[in-house]
């Protein structure tokens, strides 16, 4: 039997994921698959999964393919065998963990939204900028940028194939809070989650508008609503201190008007992100529930055609399966890890950067400010 050295071994990066719940699981899956699908990327070592509950994190680490588990993230940051820290904890800890990791010289991915407050997000950006000077890089995890169909949509818009964008409709609908009996969770506490559907879902939607159009949002008129104001907690009813849903119309720097709706109360909708972009010579339509498809009306056509985005050369497809062999939601995290590693290998800051995360945060803050004034216009520059 002959053995061959793994050429990427010398470049292998040790990864720690902090948090092992839903997002920790999704990111673990990505780290586990990224090398096999993207052999050009630097090798990674799934070194340690970190969580507060020692038994639960030990089980999760074994299940998701980690070499070890740990309960103290501070100690993990001191280790020389950790190069990348992937922050998958609730929002109130993003700033603390990400800043400490960058200051310890670790490259960082922080789950979205970047932070719970503008002050935290600004501090994260300042830390990221200082780290960048030392060759230490960071990224915020807006994974939907890595849906092949949405990456293709961005290419069509950037190439002018739908002309000048006039209108965008974007809705992100979930239903896991539609049942009044759904219990209290950290996601419904302002001090832990920052906001409700806004930070959780509108952050993705706002990022998509910036990503697809390559424009900034300049002003908003918004409403938010909390339909169920109390939920069952461990020891009785507790106040819900975040929004269940939000609606906003927004203007962009390129003169487009966006209508955005997000909710976790849309009975029967599980994870429905719908995006429509209408330009002067075409349009694009996307539905996350059929994420391998993109409806396109390009170059002056007057009807949509449905394209299966799995052809060689389509974004993110090379390295996966032959044409027509469709991808799932999980692949977006693998693409994210792959892009992150490729940027590190090139010595570049990955995108979306913490600055992108801050830009989204500013729009979310404008939406909250407008909603607090019953929908009055708030300029994003006022935030
Ligand atoms: C929960 O609402 C959630 O997991 C979001 O936090 C994710 O960002 C989204 O991708 C799916 O739904």
UniProtKB/TrEMBL annotation:
One of its GO terms (molecular function) is nucleotide binding. InterPro entries: Gfo/Idh/MocA-like_OxRdtase_N (IPR000683), Gfo/Idh/MocA_oxidrdct_glycsds (IPR050463), GFO_IDH_MocA-like_dom (IPR055170), NAD(P)-bd_dom_sf (IPR036291). Residues 151-285 form the GFO/IDH/MocA-like oxidoreductase domain. This is Gfo/Idh/MocA family oxidoreductase. Pfam families: GFO_IDH_MocA, GFO_IDH_MocA_C3. It comes from Nocardioides oleivorans. SUPFAM superfamilies: Glyceraldehyde-3-phosphate dehydrogenase-like, C-terminal domain, NAD(P)-binding Rossmann-fold domains. Keywords: Oxidoreductase. Residues 14-132 form the Gfo/Idh/MocA-like oxidoreductase N-terminal domain. The lineage of its organism: Bacteria, Bacillati, Actinomycetota, Actinomycetes, Propionibacteriales. Gene3D superfamilies: Dihydrodipicolinate Reductase, domain 2, NAD(P)-binding Rossmann-like Domain.
